[in-house]
Amino acid sequence: MFxxxxxxxxxxxxAGAAALLxxxxxxxxxxxxxxxxxxxxxxxxxxxxxTGVYQQYGKLLKQALAQDLPEVSIxxxxxxxxxxxxxxxxxxxxxxxxxxxxxxxxxxxxxRPGFERLRGCARLYDDYVQLVVRKGSTLRRVxxxxxxxxxxxxxxxxxxxxxxxxxxxxxxxxxxxxxAVSAGIDTMPELLERGELDAFFWSGGLPTLAVQTLSERxxxxxxxxxxxxxxxxxxxxxxxxxxxxAVIPADAYAKAQDGRPIETLxxxxxxxxxxxxxxxxxxxxxxxxxxxxxxxxxxxxxAQLVDLRTAVYTEPLPLHEGARRYYRSVKx
Length: 332
Description:
Blueprint: H1 7-31, E1 41-46, H2 53-68, E2 72-77, H3 82-91, E3 96-100, H4 101-109, E4 118-134, E5 149-151, H5 158-169, E6 179-181, H6 188-193, E7 199-204, H7 209-217, E8 220-223, H8 227-236, E9 244-248, H9 254-257, E10 262-274, H10 279-291, H11 293-297, H12 308-311, H13 321-329
Parallel strand pairs: 1-2, 1-3, 5-6, 5-7
Antiparallel strand pairs: 3-10, 4-7, 4-8, 4-10, 9-10
Helix pairs in contact: 2-10, 5-8, 10-13
């Protein structure tokens, strides 16, 4: 039949068929998207003080994200720590952050603004509480700090939260029994070295660069936080249930520990966002966190402890849907 048509008629039929195929192609492309949507735009990631692990980790994660999510621009903003980080994300001033589980639980317990919007992406690594004193000091236990000048972290930090609780568990009232100095890890080592502090608290990954650097130029040691003290913390209830007994390995700060492990307590760090965060972006963010573990861990040791098997446990935060989607995709 086609052969019996005139040349002009055949051309019209072919042209019509080509047009129909083009329309069908557009419809197929529109109805069945090709590949996974590529996240784009800009996000703010609230980190920590310059010499802390949050800031170091954030810088390296930003580099990894630039490769994995090239259409997403990441801006890092420094902070005083977990408490300020949570307030920024909950209020929309930041899109992602890192915070300790105890700080998250406290934020929820106090029902602070935006607490119900917070969601978890991954459990990262544990922070270890480090109570640093001069090596020649006669101090042996937390309760020996009575009447002394003690660095307790900045007001918006997770360090301040945990320092106050450890002092209370040792029978000390932070505002009455010690001279609490509000300072961060960027200044506390120098204050101790100059004799303006008798001790300071720090809660961070091992080793923390600021503590390690101090130990290499000045003789320090770490006071133990033994199991009975951790038990007293647990007796308080609430967000203290996120603490666990732990040991600082003997080689964490070789010059400060004289080859001895130190008893302490630890708390998990969480990667945090909000329920409104784009699911594709959160999925990509979470994927990069897991995949970049070894690369980042070669420079920031705590990152080596990020583990796919435990990353999904973001208690006390519900898991974001985008993160859940990633974990389902890699489930054996």
